[in-house]
Design goal:
The complex is a heterodimer of chains A (191) and B (222). Chain A is mainly α and 191 residues long. Chain A has helices at residues 21-34, 39-44, 48-62, 70-84, 87-101, 106-113, 121-136, 142-150, 155-178, 184-188. Chain B is mainly alpha-helical. Classes of the chains: A mainly alpha (191), B mainly alpha (222). The A-B interface holds A 10-11, 47, 49-50, 52-54, 56-57, 59-61, 64, 84-86, 133-134, 137-140, 145, 155, 159, 162-163, 165-167, 169-174, 176-177, 179 and B 40-41, 76-77, 79-80, 82-84, 86-87, 89-91, 93-94, 114-116, 163-164, 167-170, 175, 185, 189, 192-193, 195-197, 199-204, 206-207, 209.
Chain lengths: 191, 222
């Protein structure tokens, strides 16, 4: 290939000055947190109402008490995003997983095949369940709940795994549809 | 440009309505299938709900005549219910080149492929009402390729299926195929976005095992 496209999204990305004030504040907040405005925010800002709902849903799932650690959450997301082939989600949540776990090799392992990764049996069953939510949610049954409870998860923790997985199955599809380009910064974090 | 028609399952989340009549019939609606649970998880009783969630219940009841079990089931997590409602509203409160019937069609097709009983039954009802065709939902649920639909509708569902099952392979050819059927890029985003959101919903309904409301089975059949 003679030329490589490096566009942020298949769709137009608005300039900062064109954004509604509250979306500008979202960008400012992201910049304070990461040091840059992630491309997911830029790409979704083409549709401000969807961006707001996306962030509100994410906050509802993550800004709460949970038996899941931040590393557990990022592991679940990285594993099924890898399985769904979502480059953006693997790069960004892989970065978050390296930061949360302090393990620079973990994200590469989990994104390719979590069954071979250096994770605990509890983490493995959580990801097994997330994969079932991703690929075969219609077959979920009481046995799945029992397995997770045997590893110390409460029913609310199980909802957290399912809810995060369902949400990121939505996000995986949107990022792939928009072909959102992973921010270079994420590749380097926590290495 | 056709605007999404209001007044169905989809718009029940628009929290524009607020009345004080919320009480007894809501309780009845929630407890109607006592021996057949609504959800694997606890369903809150109306008096336990935050005010803004009560408004969602009231609005739904006013539009549909009952509080759908999806709302009752998700009310166990009010913030998630509100965010889901807001996401739905983002799609339904905008202009779109995708008609109401087209939207319900691809939701029924993808929900069936995902094995989501709740979504097939509720959106199947909405599709019958939007089209006036009592057979269309059964046809699309079984196999949309054999259903009485237009080539444009088929192309839209083909794309929604690709978003559902192979989103990583979406490419410019998919856009070109839809452009030929008159879809704008924004219409294509609508199809992808709504499909993605219902891929979330299909999974949550399956995890929670939300029981379809009996009312939906009967709607638009005659």
């Amino acid at each position: 290939m003679s030329e490589m496209k490096k566009e942020i999204s298949r769709f137009p990305v608005p300039e900062y000055d064109e954004l509604p004030e509250d979306v500008q504040q979202i960008c400012d907040g992201a910049k304070d947190h990461f040091g840059f405005v992630p491309n997911v925010v830029k790409a979704l800002s083409h549709r401000p109402d969807e961006l707001r709902a996306f962030l509100a849903y994410n906050a509802a799932l993550t800004e709460k008490e949970s038996g899941l650690t931040p590393a557990d959450r990022e592991m679940i997301i990285t594993a099924h995003s890898g399985h769904n082939g979502c480059a953006y989600c693997v790069a960004s949540h892989g970065a978050a997983l390296r930061m949360a776990s302090g393990n620079p090799a973990l994200s590469d392992q989990v994104a390719v095949n979590y069954r071979e990764a250096d994770i605990t049996p509890r983490q493995k069953v959580m990801i097994d369940f997330a994969m079932k939510v991703t690929d075969d949610s219609k077959s979920i049954n009481e046995e799945d709940f029992k397995t997770l409870r045997a590893h110390g998860l409460s029913d609310e923790d199980i909802w957290d795994v399912a809810g995060l997985t369902a949400f990121y199955n939505m996000s995986n599809r949107m990022m792939s549809f928009l072909a959102v380009r992973p921010d270079d910064e994420f590749y380097k974090m926590g290495r | 440009m056709k605007k999404f028609i209001t007044g169905t399952i989809i718009t029940l989340f628009a929290v524009t309505l607020s009345t004080n009549s919320f009480a007894t019939n809501t309780v009845a609606a929630i407890k109607a299938y006592g021996e057949k649970p609504i959800s694997r998880f606890p369903v809150p009783s109306p008096e336990e709900l935050p005010e803004d969630v009560k408004k969602i219940f009231t609005g739904a009841e006013k539009r549909l005549g009952f509080v759908p079990n999806i709302v009752a089931a998700l009310a166990h997590r009010p913030n998630e219910l509100k965010a889901f409602g807001a996401y739905n509203h983002a799609f339904n409160s905008k202009e779109s080149g995708i008609s109401k019937a087209e939207k319900e069609m691809f939701l029924v097709a993808t929900s069936a492929a995902n094995g989501c009983t709740y979504c097939v039954v509720s959106h199947g009802a909405a599709l019958r009402k939007a089209t006036g065709n009592p057979f269309i939902s059964d046809q699309i649920t079984a196999n949309y390729r054999e259903a009485d639909i237009t080539p444009r509708e088929k192309a839209i569902i083909d794309f929604a299926m690709k978003v559902s099952f192979d989103s990583k392979s979406i490419n410019e050819e998919d856009f070109a195929a839809l452009h030929k059927h008159g879809l704008s890029d924004e219409d294509i985003w609508d199809v992808a976005g709504i499909t993605a959101l219902y891929n979330l919903s299909n999974r949550m309904m399956n995890v929670l095992k939300v029981r379809p409301d009996e009312e939906f089975y009967k709607m638009g059949r005659q």
